[in-house]
């Protein structure tokens, strides 16, 4: 008996430890909401105002909370719940070894009671300003004592709601399967039995309507906790419209619409985008690439691990420079919701100014996909039970099947081959075949700039953990792929996952193929590998070991920008998120014959016959 108890205790401790290590990046996971109890006190109160938000159509608004407690403590905190009528009944358990929770849902955000009122612990009175976004339900605010680990509900506020909680919000553009197709994906509270979703769009002065399709995500399509338990929140209706036969480079305006079945129309605000160039078109083309940005709260809530300023700084810099950006790639670890579904709405709200204006193309990372026993290449718990479902629904990507998150997309003189490192990429796999096909099928005379993108570092990185393994890469990363990069003359390969910036020399099989550092003329003879995972998440340390191939390292938040001036000239820049300034750069100048030229392991056969 004693032994069984001990074993149970060990299992529980192990479960907790595993939880801690796998969801460590998600601040909401620090709250033991499943242990929450009720200790309502008649003299404690919390009051929110205003009670109706978005009266002029805004999707983001600030509320002010005033609260008081008879037994204040420094670790009192305030949780925001949405829907407002959060359940206080005992909730179903997911894992038989873990106690069922008493509150069925985690708050969507939280802040300490003393945040704006340091005197709270003495006076018992405080106030707080919080930013809310329209996410389809009303809100309530709860004052807790007992800290994050033993939460006790002391007071519950009045309810607050947006005037139309169902409104269409947070459009995100993505390139379609054809070069002249743009897809628009958005979220609303209108299902197919209530309204018909569509996009009204056209070049200036004209307008037409295109239908949208509707998808939902239900709890049963997710793989585990917290996504299926306290992290679950109805993601609403996700609509995608396919805008086809676009005229290259033309500016289109659009707005999201829902026609209710009683004839009423519900509209979003008006947005605009510029249609993509024809593949091969010679014009100025500017691409931004980064990984691991995550999201954060402008009001300072949920702050953890210094995500806050990193993520918001990157977002701010991109918005400021938006007129000089044509397309964005966020190569995995998109919002670190880690099974707390409310965070996806908050992420799409954060990037809305960017994603509603230029195509926002994502790749899949461990925090989107990994979950044991679900076919992910890595069997860890980094997705918090989402197993890819949220990423696959919230953002459109032109894949053949969304669960296999690899795809190819063209932007003018660029060809991008996007791999999915959460599925096996080694020789003989379906993904390897795709990668080879993507690299081999591009017309380099028209699309000279061939870029490989993936979440984990399949190339080279001096991150301390990779250095300690001795591999300087994700194990098995480049062994299969380097001969493809070399054979098809990939110019640049970029990765996230490691939260810093690093650039290599043009390299093949660990050897620099070119001594130059800033101005490459003629054939590169190898591929330049870049880690650009510093867009927001807490930074990763470098090893102190110096390698020949590492040309530039930066332990800071930043992102990469590629500018193609024409078929012969490319500029690469690394910018810091704190000031938008360039801290590393290089140029490539070369002609078509330099791409055709023979280098090691990439020569076509020739014959002596004439
Ligand atoms: C506010 O609360 C936090 C969390 O309990 C605590 O770490 C901090 O010291 C408090 N600040 C003040 C000014 O009391
Ligand atoms: C809470 O409100 C939602 C709709 O806002 C409703 O579907 C649900 O049944 C309510 N739950 C409780 C416990 O009242
Ligand atoms: C149609 O339904 C909506 C939502 O229920 C309501 O606000 C609107 O007044 C209705 N319009 C008409 C013409 O009945
Ligand atoms: C690239 O490789 C070719 C053939 O091996 C060689 O002639 C050329 O000098 C190399 N270019 C550079 C920049 O090293
Ligand atoms: C964000 O940018 C500000 C300056 O604009 C800087 O002071 C701050 O350190 C930056 N934060 C991070 C985490 O880089
Ligand atoms: Fe990652």
TrEMBL record:
Which segments constitute the Purple acid phosphatase C-terminal domain?
526-585
Can you give the residue ranges of the Purple acid phosphatase Fn3-like domain? 46-164
Q: Where is the signal peptide?
A: 1-22
Q: Reaction catalysed?
A: a phosphate monoester + H2O = an alcohol + phosphate
Q: Which InterPro entries match?
A: Calcineurin-like_PHP, Fn3_PAP, Metallo-depent_PP-like, MPP_PAP, PAPs_C, PAPs_N, Purple_acid_Pase-like_N
E.C. code: 3.1.3.2
Which enzyme class? hydrolase
Name of the featured protein: Purple acid phosphatase
